[in-house]
Specification:
The complex is a heterodimer. By secondary structure, chain A is of the alpha/beta class. Chain A has a six-stranded mixed beta sheet, sandwiched between helices. In chain A, strand 8, helix 11 and strand 9 form a beta-alpha-beta unit. The longest helix of chain A is centred in the middle third of the chain and has 17 residues. Chain B is built from ten helices and 13 strands. In chain B, strands 8-10-7-11-9-12-13 form a seven-stranded mixed beta sheet, with helices on both faces. A four-stranded mixed beta sheet of chain B has the order 1-6-4-5. Classes of the chains: A alpha/beta, B alpha+beta. At the A-B interface, helix 1, helix 2 and helix 15 of A face helix 9, strand 12 and strand 13 of B.
Chain lengths: 364, 351
């Protein structure tokens, strides 16, 4: 398949692995920020092909994993008590809230629909003028343009029954949170290629400087990841800390200006609670005040008591790369994808689920 | 639905009093009788059904296989087929996987009131055609109608009886180290065809379901290779990955598969990438998996490729003594990973 198979060529993979092995002289700890990268590393069996000096730790870039418990409870409440048509991306509906997940709500009769695009939800609002339609708009910068566009479409169509329950999170503040935690000991980052495709790479220069760490904007295919790792290792070995762009076929330095414009029309920066990490200042987007008719957070007054996370779940430590999923006493025992204690075991992007599905201790 | 219009011409719909199925059609009274007489009995005609008795009475000798399945697919019409032929092929194939030659089927409908009569007729016609193609007779059945909102257009149950092939020795107990694992064709095609027309997920594609009967192919393979075939399985829901895990668990041995050997159509692979799905977990129809002795594996594949529904067959892996009860995949780039059973439903990812 064009633009995919080229980046999965065994010969190229071997070349990059060889070069990484030749370059590396001592142990390095590198965090891949995005859950999609984690997934690709594990699914393609790359972790057991890398030399043991290169230690990959898995970052917080899984939108499903970091969506706060309270917001899931809110979505469940809207679906069950307010009778809305609650639309969501697929993997969000399995994440456990404090009482139950949206999937369980659906089984109890709530109108929960899995959609592939928020624009489909706008269509649903048009088709059901007497029902409220709420789109559960989670995600990093990547999904924000489409979510923002849905609000602008709904506004243009004059719809009064469409709103989004937004929980957008931003990558750069998450990198800061990881770096500010002294136990994390990350020496370099692979930044999330798709996020940078939207936002550009400008924001990352400050991080490189502030923390004196190499950051390489990296794609998701095996060859992308290995090339990104090689670029990082070369910098580390040479004692450098630069921003580089491995994913230049997709990522322009300035990002996607049209998409940024749409985002700025709809969202503004806010403090955001991250599940497992706590509140990070200026780390999320919320719907602007002037569009509050389309903000489910404001449209429906919902007071949900703040529930506490499962005490045995170490999701926060996993999301910061301090612990590997295997190091959790509950992993694969009391916590499995069928009965997850925390979100990283649910999402296909979550580190715990990736390890559960694809890896075992003997192989790694 | 257009692809079946030619069949409609060859089996014109009888004139019925209603445009849609009503509760009365399931009441057992006049309407039910009229629907059965002019519709079902007329179309699926055979001596056993013609007795109009409460059940079918027949003789069958030797070792028998018996299987049942319910079909609740949505949408009921999909690219490449409809729920009717799926209901026949599904049970026919389940019997074939037991090493049996399917003979008789039962056919039960649970219809939601309001189903257009034309759609019911189209489903009946494809049931008739699928049964003819598979060489089975529908000998008993039932029709119930439920109120609007209590069903989803139409549910079908079929049960079937078949005679086990005299050469067949199908059992996971017969699987041994070194046995080869074969798939009969491209995987994940049916699941992606259905997903392409699901509400909220629809995308443009030419992918059509490969639903078909596998019994004639399976019989020919049993004629030639008999006891060297240790297992047949059709990887419907849960996909190839789930079936491989079940096999590994049942025989207590390990399974190794090679990603580069697994046949997947380019369009299907592309759709899986787009939706964030793994083809190994996507549902199949018209595809079977088999485990055979290593000695005959190449000849087996050669024979299988002579059939339309086996022309893309490939050896995808083997049974090993290492990592008992676990399935390990070697990725295209040479990395290894575990392949686990499907948990819940496969859901498209966020980004």
């Amino acid at each position: 398949m064009k633009f995919l198979s080229e980046y999965r060529t065994p010969e190229l993979v071997e070349q990059y692995l060889d070069e990484i092995k030749k370059t590396v002289t001592r142990p390095w700890t590198i965090m891949e920020v995005c859950g999609g990268q984690t997934h690709s590393l594990v699914k393609n069996g790359l972790l057991n092909l890398l030399p043991k000096e290169v230690q990959m730790v898995h970052g917080p870039g899984c939108p499903v994993c970091v969506t706060p418990l309270n917001l899931i409870d809110k979505a469940v409440y809207l679906a069950e008590e307010k009778g809305v048509i609650l639309c969501s991306f697929g993997d969000m509906i399995r994440v456990p809230g404090s009482k139950r997940s949206l999937l369980e709500s659906k089984a109890r009769g709530a109108d929960v629909r899995i959609l592939y695009s928020p624009l489909e939800a706008v269509k649903l609002a048009q088709q059901n003028p007497d029902r409220e339609v709420v789109f559960f708009a989670v995600g990093f910068e990547t999904t924000a343009p489409a979510n923002a566009l849905s609000v602008l479409f709904a506004q243009k169509l004059g719809l009064k029954n469409y709103s989004i329950l937004a929980s957008h999170v931003l990558v750069p503040p998450a990198i800061e949170a990881v770096m500010d935690d002294k136990t994390a000991r990350i020496q370099a980052f692979l930044a999330a290629g798709h996020v940078c495709a939207i936002m550009g790479i400008g924001q990352y220069y400050d991080l490189v400087e502030k923390y004196d760490i190499p950051i390489v904007v990296t794609g998701f295919e095996p060859v992308d990841l290995l090339q990104g790792i090689l670029m990082t290792v070369k910098q580390l070995e040479a004692g450098q800390a630069n921003l580089e762009n491995q994913y230049s076929r997709i990522v322009k330095p300035e990002g996607n200006l049209e998409a940024i414009k749409v985002i700025e029309q709809v969202f503004e920066v806010t403090d955001r609670e991250w599940r497992g990490l706590g509140t990070i200042p200026m780390s999320g987007w919320e719907v602007k005040d002037e569009l509050s008719d389309f903000d489910a957070n404001k449209k429906f007054s919902v007071n949900i008591a703040k529930a506490s996370e499962c005490a045995d779940c170490i999701a926060g430590l996993v999301l910061k790369g301090i612990k590997k999923p295997f190091e959790c006493s509950q992993f694969g025992k009391n916590c499995t994808p069928e009965k997850p204690l925390g979100a990283p075991m649910v999402s296909s992007e979550g580190a715990c689920a990736a390890y559960f599905h694809y890896a075992n201790v003997e192989i790694l | 639905m257009t692809q079946n219009s030619i069949m409609n011409l060859s089996c014109p719909m009888p004139t019925l009093d209603f445009d849609v199925i009503t509760l009365g059609h399931g009441s057992g009274g006049v309407l039910t009788n009229r629907l059965l007489e002019s519709g079902v009995f007329n179309l699926l005609k055979n001596p056993l059904l013609d007795t109009h008795h409460d059940g079918a009475v027949f003789e069958l000798s030797g070792k028998l296989a018996f299987s049942t399945d319910s079909y609740v697919i949505s949408p009921i019409f999909f690219p490449g087929g409809n729920i009717g032929e799926l209901a026949v092929n599904g049970t026919v194939n389940d019997l074939a996987m037991c090493g049996a030659i399917p003979k008789y089927l039962s056919l039960s409908f649970i219809i939601e009131e309001g189903l257009p009569m034309t759609e019911f007729w189209e489903i009946l016609v494809s049931i008739k055609n699928a049964a003819e193609k598979a060489g089975v007779q529908i000998v008993t059945g039932d029709t119930k109608v439920v109120e609007k909102g209590k069903g989803d257009k139409i549910f079908i149950n079929t049960s079937g009886i078949g005679q086990v092939h005299p050469n067949a020795q199908i059992s996971s107990k017969n699987i041994k180290i070194g046995d080869k694992i074969i798939v009969s064709g491209h995987i994940a095609t049916h699941g992606i065809a259905i997903m392409s027309v699901r509400e909220g997920l629809d995308f443009e594609t030419h992918i059509v379901s490969d639903t078909t009967n596998l019994n004639h192919t399976v019989k020919a393979l049993l004629d030639s290779f008999g006891a060297e075939i240790h297992l047949f399985r059709d990887p419907t829901r849960g996909g190839v990955a789930t079936v491989l895990n079940e096999i590994a668990r049942d025989c207590g041995l390990g399974i190794n598969i090679l990603q580069k050997q697994i046949p997947v159509l380019d369009e299907v692979f592309g759709a899986c990438e787009l939706l964030g799905l793994d083809p190994l977990y996507v549902a199949n129809e018209g595809v079977f998996m088999t485990i055979v002795s290593a000695e005959i594996a190449d000849d087996f594949v050669k024979k299988l490729t002579e059939f339309e529904n086996g022309k893309d067959a490939a050896i995808i892996g083997e049974v090993v003594s290492e990592h008992p009860k676990q399935v390990i995949l070697t990725s295209k780039i040479g990395g290894k990973r575990v392949v686990n059973m499907l948990v819940g439903e496969q859901l498209p990812r966020i980004c």
